[in-house]
Design a protein that fits this description.
Layout lengths: L2 H25 L5 H23 L2 H22 L3 H22 L8 H10 L5 H31 L2 H10 L1 H19 L8 H19 L3
């Protein structure tokens, strides 16, 4: 990675840290309510914009954005009083969606999700050990997302708001990083060196799988 790449990575990291801190402070009632609500809603609006940009004609994008902004305007007096809920719901939704994505691939005779990633990065043939590992890894990530969603919900409902905010806003990223570390350690135990993909290969496989899924949905 060149100097520009390192600088870009550092800026993204700082932006994420700033957003995590702002999310935590907003969730526990610190700072201006309008700013806190904007911070909470920004990722949802970003995801909304990406989805409609990829799936809707330009005229419908304008219509949907106008409807979205009108809804925000109408609900803003309520939204600015429910900052923690605005952070909790996307946190829960993302984890449940990922759990469904990984878990659904374990059903039937098709390849589990991580098996598909492995075939993209290392070729169609996978050894029995590799097939076993990729199925186990897909199951492990499914359970991780389900458990994380359950813990987040339990803390949101019954723990002090500060406790949930630390878990939901501050620890989500580190916990995902810990899962990657544990996954890498497990690969070293169950797979020979030539069958261990690098993180770069995993990311590339994930992007290729998303691109292929989008291409199959596009009309010919």
């Amino acid at each position: 990675m060149n100097a520009l790449g390192w600088l870009r990575t550092a800026l993204v990291g700082l932006l994420l840290l700033a957003w995590m801190l702002a999310s935590h402070l907003g969730s526990i009632g610190k700072g201006p309510a309008d700013l806190n609500a904007a911070v909470a809603i920004a990722p949802v609006l970003l995801a909304f914009g990406i989805v409609i940009a990829r799936t809707c004609a330009p005229v419908w994008r304008v219509v949907l954005w106008l409807l979205c902004l009108a809804l925000l305007w109408a609900l803003w007096p309520v939204l600015r009083t429910q900052i923690a809920l605005l952070h909790y719901l996307p946190h829960l939704g993302v984890h449940l969606a990922l759990a469904a994505w990984f878990g659904a691939s374990l059903r039937g005779d098709g390849d589990p999700l991580i098996t598909r990633f492995a075939r993209h990065s290392m070729g169609q043939y996978l050894s029995p050990a590799k097939l076993r590992y990729t199925r186990q890894a897909t199951l492990a990530w499914t359970l991780y997302f389900v458990i994380n969603a359950a813990v987040s919900t339990g803390l949101f409902l019954w723990a002090p708001r500060e406790v949930w905010s630390v878990y939901g806003n501050m620890l989500t990223g580190p916990l995902v990083g810990l899962m990657f570390v544990l996954d890498a350690l497990w690969r070293r135990v169950v797979l020979p060196p030539h069958e261990r993909p690098t993180l770069k290969m995993v990311v590339q496989s994930y992007r290729q799988d998303l691109a292929r899924r989008r291409a199959t949905r596009e009309p010919t």
